[in-house]
Design goal:
By secondary structure, the protein is α+β, with helices and mostly antiparallel strands. Helices cover 15% and strands 40% of the residues.
Length: 175
């Protein structure tokens, strides 16, 4: 019995090490953001009450406290004369909805909405328009224009959740 217990413990330990290593590799394979950008926190609060609003065409329901974070962002376009790459958010996802309001320039969003294997949906969002990122869905945003892009984001996420999770790249050939 003792030999069997030791083998089981040894196998479990090896399995735990393998799982931990794979988790670290998964994080390392995420696509970091690139190019020149800034992010300024405007607010980051815990909402004390809950809401159950159903006003056509919108539904918003919280069952517990949530974190609401707002940021002001800027992203520069590519500048080949100095070797500067265009801004890219890198492939990532969020734990709650992200509401984006573009106030200057244009952002291009790539997401996997739709049938898996059908490629990415590409959405160009110019100043005066918005975009909502779906929780748990990989997405990438880029400034593919020739001028600075400015936007604000409002995140509604569970208290204590990460505001961003990098994901493994390779969706629809875009990085």
């Amino acid at each position: 019995m003792k030999g069997s217990s030791r083998r089981t413990l040894a196998l479990a330990s090896v399995g735990l090490v393998v799982v931990a290593a794979l988790a670290l590799v998964g994080v390392a394979l995420g696509t970091p953001s690139g190019g020149v950008s800034t992010k300024t926190t405007l607010a980051d609060v815990t909402v004390l009450d809950t809401v159950n609003a159903n006003v056509y065409p919108t539904k918003l329901r919280t069952k517990a406290q949530v974190e609401v974070a707002q940021f002001s962002n800027t992203a520069q376009p590519a500048d080949p004369s100095i070797g500067q790459a265009a801004f890219s958010s890198g492939w990532h996802q969020h734990t709650g909805p992200i509401i984006i309001a573009v106030t200057a320039g244009e952002l291009t969003f790539y997401d996997r909405t739709g049938v898996v294997g059908s490629g990415c949906r590409v959405t160009h969002v110019s100043a005066g328009h918005g975009y909502i990122e779906t929780p748990g869905e990989p997405i990438l945003a880029r400034n593919e224009g020739t001028v600075e892009a400015d936007w604000t984001t409002t995140q509604i996420i569970p208290v204590g959740s990460s505001q961003r999770e990098d994901v493994t790249p390779g969706f629809c050939g875009v990085s």
